[in-house]
Amino acid sequence: MIRIQQLSKEVITKIAAGEVIERPASVVKELLENSLDAGSTRIEVDIEQGGTELIRVVDNGRGIQAEDLALAFASHATSKLASADDLFQIGTFGFRGEALASVGGVSQIKLQSRPADQPSGGEIFGNAGQYFPVRVWNGAPGTRIEVMHLFFNTPVRRKFLRSTATESGHICEAFTRIALAQSSLHLILRHNGKLTYEVPGAAGLRDRIGIFFGAEIRDHLYAVEAHQGPVTLRGFIGDPVLEKGNAKMQYLFINRRCIRDRNLSHALQEAYRGLLMSGRYAVAFLFLDLPPDQVDVNVHPTKSEVRFRDSQSLYHLILTAIRERLRKENLTARLQIPHGRQVPAPLSPGQKPTANSLCWQTDSLPDLPEPQPTPPPGRTAAALRPEGNGAGSDTDFPLPMSSGDSRSENGAEIPCAAVHAAGAGVGKAIQVHDSYIVLETPEGMLVIDQHALHERILFEQLKERLRTGRLEVQRLLIPEPVDLPAAQAARVLEQREALAELGVGVEDFGGGTILLTSYPAILSRRTPLSILQAILDHLMMRDRIPNREVLLGDLLSLMACHGAVRAGDRLTPEELSALVAQREWANDTHHCPHGRPTSLLFSKQELDRQFRRI
Question: Each residue of 205-220: pLDDT tens digit?
Answer without folding.
Answer: 999 999 999 999 999 9
